[in-house]
Amino acid sequence: MPDSPTTVVDNWLARFDTALQNRDVDGAVALFADDCYWRDFVSFTWNLKTLEGKADIKRMLAATLDEVRPHNWALAEPATGDAGAAEAWVTFETGQARGYAHLRLHDGRCYTLLTTMQELKGFEEKKGRNREQGVSHEIAKGRTSWLEEKTAQEARLGYEEQPYCVIVGGGQGGIGLAARMRRLGVPTIVIEKNARAGDSWRNRYKSLHLHDPVWYDHLPYLKFPEDWPVFASKDKIGDWLEHYTSIMELNYWSSTECTKATFDEDSQEWVVQVVRDGTPVTLRPKQLIFALGVSGYPNTPVFAGARSFTGEQHHSSKHPGGGDYTGRKAVVIGSNNSAHDICADLWEHGADVTMVQRSSTHISRSDSLMDLALGGLYSEEALANGVTTEKADLLFASLPYRILPSAQIPVFEQMAQRDADFYSKLSDVGFDLDFGTDGSGLFLKYLRRGSGYYIDVGASQLLIDGRVAVKSGQLDHITPTSVVLADGTELDADLIVYATGYGSMNEWLADLVSPEVADQVGRCWGYGSDTPKDPGPWEGELRNMWKPTNVPQLWIHGGNLHQSRHYSNYLALQIKARMEGLDTPVYEVQESHYTR
After folding, report:
1. Cα–Cα distance, 14 to 8 (Å, whole number)
2. Residuewise pLDDT in 10s, the chain (596 residues)
């Protein structure tokens, strides 16, 4: 009778626990397969770090074990799979924290291990049995109410008292991270130039809806209601963010712009100049986080003749949507998500629309993406199978980037077969399709470059039907009334929309801090896959995201709603540990190979 997967995992954990507590690095490494991966989020490395192979793991353990003091490894629930391929959720502790892990064993040895810090000992969130009383049941004169205390605290912070942390950017990322900070007791101010929380969504084009489904998009702590639509509109998301900011009692400074940030070496704190409701204010936080989205400034190419154009032209980020475009000729430069959405919006409002596709694009039909790629993790079916949002996040993270393509390629091969007729019709109208350089599809394109794809929510049919024309090729120049492609094709235009993407997030730093600091931090996003727009060398984790950068006390936070939710936990714990004066020796800060 073969051993059960639970027995196999229990035996492995016992041996692993003993080896780590005895500081037996060789003994611990011997428990890993020759082809193995250990991805650590903060718990061992105070970093987001993937170790690939036994040599990497041995080097990390030798450097960290004495400080980390890991122990008490145990199954969180019965293992799954079989004796030859067991999979398990695991709890563990370090000297400073409690952790949660995901383990895959192949023939009794570790193939993948994900370790994550979940809470700091002695600095746990005040929740559940640890929640605050809220009121003193002793009657005394002069008692203050919750509202009075909240109002007084808000009036002091940033003026009489300085925040420990300032988050520049009050969109989804900054809001979710600030909620984590508040739960951990980290005094934090969020700086947002817009007048209301959620305006970064409200101010986009009228027809914008989320392309990711609701199960993928929850914010920390407070999930969307069960009757929330699968794909919410931008204004609905904007309103949710505004209410969330109030409910979570965040110190949210709207109508406030950060104009400059410098680091004071003597006091070891940032000097952040902001203008709040027209009044200059100086903040002096210890930690400064830039949460300005998933990218940098809008990338608007300068084409010869653009200044001579007599019609209207703007970047997709400035496209309002709606309006009456009856009889007007519109040219949209680009073929990714925003380009498709804007083409659809313009067609709906009467325009004669042409999409100019300058490079091949991956397209996933929304239904197929939810069914084949997301359904096992983020869906009603997943929830029914016990895969909570938190487990789904960890399962997605449990596959290191080196092996993630091998898991995604079969999914998108199946999608290509399932939707073969759809793809054939797109090709027939001249649309240049791809599934990524290695066939790994949408998610890898997103992680590598943050662009190059469209989740089809209907616009592809406009191309197939010819209601929106598509022209492939490079743009050569612009005349007063047209766009001219490299092959000589001339497209009459009254409106040009540049759906041409965005730059790297560290571009913000060049203006708000300095070009030198921006280059010291280096490029953000991508992980060195040596594919288009993600040059090598291999780095194995997203550059500079949610972890220490090469500029001390400066952090980058961003990503889609899923990433903002999941990774904000690890960033908040790193900040909290520093506020409490804990030792946080960072293992192998990632080198900066590229500037802006």
Report:
1. 10
2. 578 999 999 999 999 999 999 999 999 999 999 999 999 999 999 999 999 999 999 999 999 999 999 999 999 999 999 999 999 999 999 999 999 999 999 999 999 999 999 999 999 998 998 888 888 888 888 888 899 999 999 999 999 999 999 999 999 999 999 999 999 999 999 999 999 999 999 988 888 889 899 999 999 999 999 999 999 999 999 999 999 999 999 999 999 999 999 999 999 999 999 999 999 999 999 999 999 877 778 888 899 999 999 999 999 989 988 889 999 999 999 999 999 999 999 999 999 999 999 999 999 999 999 999 999 999 999 999 999 999 999 999 999 999 999 999 999 999 999 999 999 999 999 999 999 999 999 999 999 999 999 999 999 999 999 999 999 999 999 999 999 999 999 999 999 999 998 888 888 899 999 999 999 999 999 999 999 999 999 999 999 999 999 999 999 999 999 999 999 999 999 999 999 999 999 999 998 888 87
Q: Which CATH class is domain 148-296+503-530+544-580?
A: alpha beta
Cα 348 from chain centre = 31
Asked if CATH classification 3.10.450.50 holds for the domain at 5-120, the reply, yes or no, is yes
Quick one: CA torsion of 379, 381, 387, 389, rounded to 10 degrees? 20
**CA-to-CA distance for 510 and 513, rounded, in angstroms?**
6
Pairing relation of β-strands 97-106 and 80-82? unpaired
Specify the DSSP class assigned to residue 444: H
Q: Which residues on neighbouring strands pair with residue 52, listed in sequence order?
A: 37
Q: Which residue has the tokens 């039907």?
A: 465
Every domain of the chain with CATH number 3.10.450.50 lies at: 5-120
Could you give the C-alpha distances from 71 to 22, 91, 102, 108, in angstroms and in order?
10, 10, 16, 20
Residue entry with tokens 């394109």? 445
Query: Which residues, other chains included, contact 375 with Cβ-Cβ below 8 Å and sequence gap of 6+?
Result: 381, 382
For residue 53, the 8-state DSSP code is S
Give the gyration radius of the chain's Cα atoms: 25
Alpha helices in 248-384 (DSSP H): 337-348, 366-368, 380-384
**What's the chain's length in residues?**
596
- Numbered ranges of CATH 3.50.50.60 in the chain: 148-296+503-530+544-580, 298-502
CB neighbour class for 371 (10 Å; exposed up to 12, middle 13-18, buried from 19): middle
pTM over 0.85, yes/no: yes
Distance of CA 445 to the CA centre of its chain: 14
592, two tokens: 């900066």
Q: Which CATH superfamily is domain 298-502 in?
A: FAD/NAD(P)-binding domain (3.50.50.60)
**Nearest Cα to 307, choosing from 474, 475, 501, 478?**
478
